[in-house]
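Question:
Write out your own:
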Amino acid sequence: MGKIIAIANQKGGVGKTTTAVNLAACLGVLEKKVLLIDADPQANASSGLGINVDKVEAGTYQLLEHTIKAADLIVKTESPNLDIIPAHIDLVAIEIELVDQENREQMLRKALAPIKDDYDYIILDCAPSLGLLTLNALTASDSVLIPIQCEYFALEGLGKLLNTVKSVQNLHNPQLDIEGLLLTMYDSRLRLSNQVVEEVNQHFEGLTFKTIIQRNVRLSEAPSYGESIINYDAASKGSENYLSLANELISKNS
């Protein structure tokens, strides 16, 4: 049975899409069947896997509208065992269109039900907000993985996100778990980075992944080539970090 994991944090620039794309690709390399769903109108996860978002005719928008079945929206990627349902800028309108729908928070869950068991993991790349799109993602998911950058204000907004998770658990999805907090953009030379790691581990002991994603130039370059880090530079530190995270995730769920 497949597991749906939302990668969420309402703060922008914390490494959500980088994590969604590279974790999905690394799980694929480790012979897990993976589907990545781009649930962000910026569509960076789609372009990060080589999809020309200007030519996307159907994707997450139609998935949420229930006008096209999930199975008919799946696109193969060049990464082994990794498929994607891409996004387009049109997705920005879905929040307004869903407002009057009955059970609007359940639209994504219903749409994914027929294909959930076709994959080992379904990864949802969420938008940097706590709007209806993210609410749909959390309601559809079995767990949420929260990236936190190793910078000043790292914990700012985390309380709000955890309250949202609690609210989703109470109202829409009692089975929703926290998969873990993932520390990103770590620079061992900076005292601040080390302080953030200490603080997060102290406050959220047992909830934080052992793997820490380090700052890495190759990791920043990969999306401009439309490739995951494992395809772009398998020997890089970024690739090593995300393979470690994928292994940790598999071991945690085995």
Notes: The first strand starts at residue 3 and ends at 7.
